[in-house]
Amino acid sequence: MKGILYGIGVGPGDPELITVKAVNILKNIDVVIGPRTQKKGSSLALDIASPYLKPDAEILELVFPMVYEEETLNTAWESSSNEILNQLNLGKKVAFLTLGDPMLYSTYIYIYRLLSKKAAQIETIPGITSFCAAASRLGFPLADTNDIISIVPATCERKDLDRALAISDTVVLMKVSKDFPGIIKSLQTNNLADNAVMISKCGHPEESIHYNLTSQEALKPNYLSTILAKRSSK
Q1: DSSP strands (E only) in the chain
Q2: In what residue span(s) does the Tetrapyrrole methylase domain sit (predicted)?
Q3: What are residue 82's phi and psi, to 5 degrees?
Q4: Which of 39, 92, 193, 205 could form a disulfide with 87 if both were Cys (CB 3.0 to 4.6 A apart)?
């Protein structure tokens, strides 16, 4: 009998922001996939999930390199999906952990697509996203009435970023560490800079919050940084 793969979102970082359903599934998991990069010593998602695992759960830390070379990424995803498939063919219950939600800018999405083509049994458990946690933490309403909200990876082309900013009442900017000064300029151009705030590592012990972003272009945000911005006319 084949096993089942659970894609489990463990939330943004606060260990209490994990769903009851995720906890109940983790208690019965045979193999836990804790994705990490080659430069990272351990998996943060695994740290969050660890208290809920049974003592004999097998930990499998698969490496997903943080590069933009398609061939390298495809090789890593194919290798990892084959390793997971081997576990499923042994009848194991496997959990693939991810920060935030599994279906939002997550490595799990690529594994999900590959294994879906191989008829694997898969169930995805949603998680609290970093920007929803940040909005609650900051008292920052994301949208009300007919507000248009856009969730944008700041790594996209500048013209695409500006196009999204131009039509949005509220913007969630993720992956802001690449070109922070350029992002601030785009916010200013689109009348979104005055009501913007950046939070880094929301829910973690190292959490930091930054207002007045136009005067802090020298900041070097880490990878787990998100900007919430609202149009000044609102």
Answers
A1: 4-9, 31-33, 58-60, 93-98, 121-125, 149-153, 170-174, 196-200, 208-210, 225-230
A2: 5-210
A3: -65, -40
A4: 92
Please list the alpha-helical segments (H only) found in 36-148: 44-49, 70-89, 108-116, 130-138
What is the Cα–Cα distance from 223 to 176, expressed in whole angstroms?
7
Residue type, 52: Y
- The CATH architecture annotation of domain 130-230 reads 2-Layer Sandwich (3.30)
pLDDT band at 39 (very low <50, low <70, confident <90, very high): low
pLDDT at position 119, please?
A: 86
Per-residue pLDDT, 195: 94
**Residue 158, token pair as written in the block:** 């500048």
CB under 8 Å to 70, separation ≥6 — which residues?
none
**What residues does each domain of the chain span?**
4-125, 130-230
In angstroms, rounded to a whole number, what is the distance separating the alpha carbons of residues 91 and 3?
4
